[in-house]
């Protein structure tokens, strides 16, 4: 799909379309600009920009995000329907506006759009947005999806708000987790839903999310994750509470990297607390009306 033309320039082909990418200098400039925001990490943005070609490769460095996407979307859809029932609203999602913050190449954004919502995918890396736009062209039905090269903080400054705010496997890559959560809540309309998925800070998550995929199997580039940035669900709920949102559900995303399967499980098993969220988990919070 890709070929290099000359130093500092790249062109992507998808179904006969020729889409020019920014030069290396302009990409670096864009990364530096968005990194000035409170929670954006310039090194993390640069890291994922370099991997942008691989987003839609189910066997590449993002293979586990492909694996996790189905249960993540299943969880999000269920929480949206719960919210609508509490509001005695219709099951049609077309009247909802959603945002996928840190959308990468658009894996979750496309799935959310196929639920019927109007979706905006945003990312701090220009190359990720370029890749997402190219892949979107493969499905002419995705007219309810748009991508923007921006950040949560910049959208807050523009007074944007959404019914559903989603950020999946992003918070463990930001500089200031609390500032990032604050931005997500500010992007949410009163009474709206926020969904975040990430990794717990435990021995299990260190083994499952770092040691096995990065150092044993080599399926994820080494250095992708920093255990020190993993966020326990109790801490994430605490941050949401401090920002004016209440946690409504937490479930585990049990990822088996050897078999490449992922399953949603309850947080607690009887008297055994937090057993299901020892590694990956997904949390839904509702902003106070």
In short:
The protein is 36% helix and 26% strand.
Description:
- By secondary structure, the protein is α/β, with parallel strands linked by helices.
- 36% of the residues lie in helices and 26% in strands.
- It contains 9 helices and 11 strands.
- The strands form 2 sheets. The protein has an 8-stranded mixed beta sheet.
- α4 (107-114) links the parallel β4 (97-101) and β5.
- α3 packs parallel to α4.
- The N and C termini lie far apart (47 Å).
- Residues 1-36 have low confidence and may be disordered.
The average pLDDT is 84
Helix content: 25-40%
Strand order of the largest sheet: 6-5-4-7-8-11-9-10
SSE pattern: EEEHHHEHEHEHEHEHHEEE
Structural class: alpha/beta
C-alpha Rg, in Å? 18 Å
Instruction: Count all strands and give the number.
Output: 11
Distance between the termini: 47 Å
Strand content: 25-35%
What form results from the Cα inertia axes? Answer: globular
Low-confidence stretches: 1-36
Largest sheet: 8 strands, mixed
Layout of strands and helices, then pairs:
Blueprint: E1 2-6, E2 9-14, E3 17-20, H1 24-34, H2 42-50, H3 63-86, E4 97-101, H4 107-114, E5 118-123, H5 126-136, E6 145-149, H6 152-157, E7 162-168, H7 177-186, E8 188-199, H8 203-216, H9 233-242, E9 245-256, E10 261-266, E11 280-287
Helix pairs in contact: 3-4
């Amino acid at each position: 799909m890709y070929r290099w033309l000359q130093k500092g320039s790249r062109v992507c082909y998808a179904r006969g379309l020729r889409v020019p990418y920014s030069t290396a200098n302009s990409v670096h400039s864009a990364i530096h600009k968005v990194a000035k925001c409170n929670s954006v990490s310039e090194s993390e943005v640069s890291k994922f920009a370099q991997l942008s070609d691989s987003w839609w490769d189910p066997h590449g460095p993002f293979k586990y995000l492909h694996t996790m996407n189905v249960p993540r979307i299943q969880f999000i859809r269920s929480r949206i329907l719960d919210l609508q029932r509490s509001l005695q609203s219709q099951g049609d999602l077309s009247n909802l506006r959603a945002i996928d913050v840190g959308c990468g190449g658009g894996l979750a954004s496309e799935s959310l759009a196929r639920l019927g919502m109007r979706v905006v995918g945003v990312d701090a890396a220009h190359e990720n947005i370029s890749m997402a736009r190219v892949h979107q062209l493969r499905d002419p039905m995705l007219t309810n999806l748009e991508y923007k090269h921006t950040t949560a903080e910049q959208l807050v400054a523009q007074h944007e708000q959404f019914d559903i705010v989603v950020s999946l496997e992003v918070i463990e890559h930001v500089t200031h987790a609390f500032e990032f959560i604050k931005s997500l809540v500010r992007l949410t309309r009163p009474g709206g839903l926020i969904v975040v998925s990430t990794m717990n800070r435990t021995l299990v998550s260190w083994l499952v999310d770092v040691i096995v995929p990065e150092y044993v199997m080599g399926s994820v580039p080494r250095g992708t994750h920093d255990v020190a940035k993993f966020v326990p669900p109790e801490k994430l709920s605490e941050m949401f509470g401090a920002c004016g949102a209440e946690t409504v559900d937490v479930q585990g995303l049990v990822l088996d990297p050897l078999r490449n399967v992922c399953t949603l499980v309850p947080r607690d098993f009887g008297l055994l607390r937090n057993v299901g969220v020892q590694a990956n988990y997904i949390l839904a919070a509702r902003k106070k009306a």
